[in-house]
Design brief:
3% strand; mainly alpha; globular; single chain
Length: 339
């Protein structure tokens, strides 16, 4: 029997959320904190950079225009950015959050909101060290709760009732002692992704900047190549989290299976990823239309939690529907490599 298609997985994900509405509680609570809680602002820190750039005397009109544009961008970031948005986690590990993607600024429905100012790099580093692990733990709890529901969904590959009960009993015994192991592998994967970003991105930007300063067209091509390479790698890793928390795989096996799934199901994976991005980002702009000081924004928070959770659940359903074909996919892959 063929696995569910992309639309079928999306439908199954949203049906699952409609039957287990408690799954949206964490995204709602996180957005309420980012909306109604105090803001942790980096405006003073960015203001120091703005003053530093502004103090550099120059007569080059092009440079003056660039400095003015950068100053304006930094000012907008300082007004909008809330450091607490780190609680939504990293990409691939995130809890769906409307307020993290569309910061409400300094307005509350009650008026002017409370602000905690971050005035130095060390203070910002301290907030980052504090909030990022908490965000990852929230992401783990959220994704595991979805995985537990998806695990109990009926599969298209039906098994005898006695066998299903035996597997369920074995799973319940196995899951208890492995939860800490899952968390450790989850955090290890997050650390590897974060470490790669902190090392490779600055190096890549430095190389592109140097090449662009020498030969601008080649620098632009190099930047495009680098951006494409990053997107390609991220796409290969898109099902690692599902493998860790739903498939209960080890980290290396989860990575290899994610690569194999994307390689052999490329068209379906692209369709799923593109549809999820279009739906989530498109509707996200619609949910964020109400002003931050309007209680109407609460409707957008509720809707975003439902949509984000439904789409996340759909990726888990997609993984589970296809992971059972991994032995056949390995055979196809090995034959393709030898021919």
């Amino acid at each position: 029997m063929r696995p569910l298609g992309v639309i079928g997985c999306l439908t199954s994900g949203f049906e699952m959320v409609s039957r287990h509405l408690w799954l949206i509680l964490l995204p709602i609570l996180l957005d309420l904190l980012l909306w109604l809680g105090p803001r942790v602002s980096v405006a003073p820190l960015l203001q120091e950079f703005i003053e530093l750039f502004s103090s550099q005397g120059t007569t080059d009109p092009n440079l003056i225009a660039h400095v003015a544009l950068l100053t304006e961008m930094m000012g907008d970031i300082g007004e909008q950015l809330n450091v607490l948005s780190l609680l939504s986690g990293l990409p691939l590990f995130t809890v769906p959050s409307l307020m993290a993607r569309h910061p409400p600024g300094l307005l509350w429905p009650f008026g002017q909101g409370g602000v905690v100012l971050v005035s130095g790099p060390l203070a910002l580093l301290g907030w980052w060290v504090l909030l990022l692990p908490v965000g990852l733990l929230l992401g783990f709890a959220y994704l595991v709760s979805i995985a537990e529901i998806v695990r109990r969904l009926p599969s298209r590959q039906s098994r005898p009732a006695t066998q299903s009960r035996a597997h369920a009993a074995a799973d319940s015994v196995q899951r208890t002692p492995t939860r800490l192991g899952q968390l450790a592998r989850f955090l290890l994967f997050a650390g590897l992704i974060l470490g790669a970003q902190m090392i490779l991105i600055p190096i890549g930007l430095l190389v592109v900047g140097v090449v662009a300063a020498i030969v601008q067209p080649i620098g632009i091509l190099l930047w495009l190549f680098g951006a494409g390479l990053v997107l390609f790698v991220v796409l290969q890793l898109v099902f690692v989290i599902q493998g860790l928390v739903l498939g209960q795989r080890g980290l290396l096996r989860a990575i290899l299976e994610s690569f194999l799934l994307v390689r052999t199901q490329f068209v379906s994976v692209i369709g799923l990823v593109v549809l999820c991005l279009i739906v989530y980002e498109g509707l996200g702009h619609l949910w964020a239309v109400p002003a931050a000081d309007s209680w109407t924004l609460s409707v957008g928070i509720l809707a975003n939690a439902c949509v984000g959770t439904g789409l996340t659940a759909a990726t888990f359903v997609f993984y589970r529907e296809r992971i059972m074909y991994i032995p056949q996919l390995r055979q196809v892959s090995s034959r393709g490599g030898t021919e």
